[in-house]
Amino acid sequence: MQTVTRPRVLVADDERVIAETLTIILRKSGFEATSAYDGEEAVAKARSWKPDLFLSDVVMPRLTGIEAAMRIRAELSSCRILLFSGMGATSDLLSQAGVQGHDFEVLAKPVQPEALLERLEVLM
To answer: In this structure, is residue 2 part of a structural domain?
Structure first.
């Protein structure tokens, strides 16, 4: 019997309802998904779980989604990154990441499930 591997998506958002809702949507859409509730937890989970994609809010306590994405990318170079944000401060954080050689795509919050799934099809 052949085992079908589903793409693994790690979702990070300090708003637990958003993280869990996106995780459920992804699971129902054929992905293997799990949640983290801040950037530090996301980096730790990524090390052990090895996701194919990291989907994260930008503005979170302890470690921003951008900082987490940079750390995850440094350790898991094949992991794709997709960020989302509803905050105006995001552009400053993205500019700082750009200076360090990182370019991230950002979806606007609230994330529409259909738009997210369409984007994931392209990325995966």
So the answer is: no
How many Cβ atoms sit within 10 Å of the Cβ of residue 87?
12
**Contact 65/56 with Cβ under 8 angstroms?**
yes
Angle 122-123-124 from CA coordinates, rounded to 5°: 95
CA distance 105 to 83: 6
Residue 3 placed within a domain: no
CA–CA gap between residue 98 and residue 92 (Å, rounded): 10
| pLDDT, tens digit (0-9, with 9 covering 90-100), for 3-30 | 668 999 999 999 999 999 999 999 999 9
Token pair, residue 105, equals 């795509």
Residue 93: CATH number of its domain: 3.40.50.2300
Exposed e or buried b per residue across 50-62, where buried means at least 16 C-beta atoms within 10 angstroms of its C-beta: ebbbbbbbbbbee
Tell me if 1 is assigned to some domain. no
For the stretch 30-86, pLDDT in tens is: 999 999 999 999 999 999 999 999 999 988 888 999 899 999 999 999 999 998 887
